[in-house]
Amino acid sequence: MTTLPHRLLRALDRFNAAHPWDHNAHYHSWILRQLPRRFGRALDVGCGSGDLARLLATRAGTVHGVDSDPKITAQAQELTPPATPVTFTTADALTGIPAGPYDVLTCVATIHHLPFTEALTVFRRHLAPGGTLVILGLPHPTTPADHLLGAVAAPLNAATGWLKNKGRTARRPLSMTAVTRPAAMGFPDIVREARAVLPGARLRRRLFWRYTLVWHHR
User: Fold this and answer.
1) Dist. CA 41–CA 127, nearest whole Å
2) Domain spanning 40-139+189-216 has what CATH number?
3) Does residue 157 or residue 131 have the better pLDDT?
């Protein structure tokens, strides 16, 4: 009995590897719903292959994507049609952000690679009054609620991967090829530190091992 959960986990890992899908892209439509229908300048920190930046460009005057990986930013630029108002820069997420301010700032699955409080402080400084910050992050599971949500997500993750890959050859999404590392901060610590820097920020646990943060710069 004690080995059954480990066997199930290994089986799920094998199944998920054979049916990959992009957990971050799953939330792109939700991110767009947090934003105005039209806005001026947008910044996507940790832009990866540029999928979200190109979506932001359907509403923005200009979009700038920043990522520390020169290979992925080059791929992002290649995937972006010339007429799209998006540019990509290889730069440090804290020190290399092009001068703002920005009306929208997004950061997807990146902030756990950065000093959390320092990153929020930098994002706040680059956000224009009236602007919106949206973060999709990865928490480290530390509470019973975290583990319960993870248990619920596991079979849903497998089912979603199967449905998204049904009838076609499964390919690992380009956005999932970047080097990653596990999250270190638990959700309660994330909430506490975020609200100290961003009073009134709205944070919520999400399925598929994610949390969201939305803050409006008054």
Assistant:
1) 10
2) 3.40.50.150
3) 131
